[in-house]
UniProtKB/TrEMBL annotation:
<dbReference type="InterPro" id="IPR001563">
    <property type="entry name" value="Peptidase_S10"/>
</dbReference>
<dbReference type="GO" id="GO:0006508">
    <property type="term" value="P:proteolysis"/>
</dbReference>
<protein>
    <recommendedName>
        <fullName>Serine carboxypeptidase-like 19</fullName>
    </recommendedName>
</protein>
<dbReference type="GO" id="GO:0004185">
    <property type="term" value="F:serine-type carboxypeptidase activity"/>
</dbReference>
<keyword id="KW-0732">Signal</keyword>
<dbReference type="Pfam" id="PF00450">
    <property type="entry name" value="Peptidase_S10"/>
</dbReference>
<dbReference type="InterPro" id="IPR029058">
    <property type="entry name" value="AB_hydrolase_fold"/>
</dbReference>
<comment type="similarity">
    <text>Belongs to the peptidase S10 family.</text>
</comment>
<feature type="signal peptide">
    <location>
        <begin position="1"/>
        <end position="27"/>
    </location>
</feature>
Length: 346
């Protein structure tokens, strides 16, 4: 999900964030990060970063940020957090949603953005793995080009391999309660990952045995045709974004709210509603719509044969030496979400 903080000139925040976060990637093994550019002093929480190889044939490696609980990391739950898109970096979860960092938007006057501690972070009570998935999202990458061919099914498979290997490297967390979470398009991924883990737990003698407790999704993409799309119209009416008359016309012409079988009258009602709310952010109705985040109609259900990596914004070559990049090249640092055809049934 593209956050409303990225509107207009705030694109520089995203670029600068990618600049300094590339400094975290110096080796494949897990590293402890104590300082970040833009944050004054040492971090008041424990942050680790690393890679896990999930496809040896193609050299697919998924990048993660691991924030330990500020409570009791030995006992508190472990949560895997996936971002939406599909194909957006989990950095959004770390600094814009549930993580312990955020940008100081009010005092920004140009230059390197200032990072501040977010006291209401979910890391107060949980250990969180923010995973860049699928391959190509954030700092996750593939050595071979064919490794970037992806789908929902393959993304789920990679996540399961990631969890298996991550717990192999972190056996001290194996008994902690495990939750799978995410937002937006992760609503298609989280339930499947959770289901596959649950199936594995039923296999007698399977190792390791993850202590799966549940899953959670925020503003999830689930079924665009039958639920996600139609549900926005009653919401718009309850929020007084469309008139009673417009809503009644929609209910009458669209068979009580069934958008699947559209008559000309139903289509006209839907077009009128679209025109009415076109300048309102669907992610936060009190904030302006991000013009550059959705420059054209995006159909998440469109089919593609392979993963298309958007290279509209990349790190310039001169940053490579200063940021000490070793595992990935500057051409692999992207700020845009990826696009690929979804393959799971609605």
């Amino acid at each position: 999900m593209r956050g409303s903080m990225f509107c207009g000139g705030d694109l520089r925040w995203w670029m600068l964030a990618i600049f300094f976060l590339c400094t975290l990637i110096a080796a494949a093994e897990e590293r402890v990060v104590t300082h970040l550019p833009g944050f004054q002093g040492p971090l008041p929480f424990q942050l680790r970063t690393g890679y896990v190889e999930v496809d040896e044939d193609n050299g697919v490696r998924l990048f993660y940020y691991f924030t330990l609980s500020e409570g009791s990391s030995a006992d508190d739950p472990v949560m895997l957090w996936l971002s939406g898109g599909p194909g957006c970096t989990s950095f959004t979860g770390l600094v814009y949603q549930i993580g312990p960092l955020s940008f100081d938007l009010d005092s920004y006057m140009g230059g390197l953005p200032k990072l501040v501690y977010r006291p209401e972070s979910w890391t107060k009570v949980s250990n969180i793995i923010f995973l860049d998935s699928p391959v190509g999202a954030g700092f996750s990458y593939s050595v071979k080009e064919q490794g970037y061919n992806s789908s929902d099914t393959k993304a789920v498979s990679h996540i399961l391999v990631f969890l298996k290997k991550w717990f192999d490297e972190h056996p001290e967390f194996l008994s902690n309660p495990l939750y799978i979470g995410g937002d937006s398009y992760a609503g298609m991924i989280v339930p499947t990952v959770t289901s596959e883990i649950a199936k594995g737990l039923k296999i007698v003698g399977s190792k390791p045995t993850m202590n799966l407790k549940g899953c959670l999704v925020g503003n999830p993409f689930t079924d665009q045709s039958n639920f996600d799309g139609p549900s926005k119209i009653p919401f718009a009416h309850r929020m007084a974004l469309i008139s009673d008359q417009m809503y009644k016309s929609y209910k009458k012409s669209c068979r009580g709210g069934d958008n699947r079988h559209q008559s000309i009258q139903c289509r006209n009602s839907l077009d009128a509603i679209d025109e009415c709310v076109k300048d309102i952010s669907e992610f936060h109705v009190l904030e302006p719509r991000c013009a550059y985040a959705s420059p054209h109609q995006y159909n998440v259900l469109k089919l593609k044969t392979s993963l298309g990596v958007q290279k509209m914004q990349q790190l310039p070559d001169f940053t490579a030496e200063g940021l000490h990049l070793s595992e990935i090249s500057t051409e692999q640092c992207y700020i845009h979400c990826l696009e690929y055809g979804q393959t799971m049934p609605q």
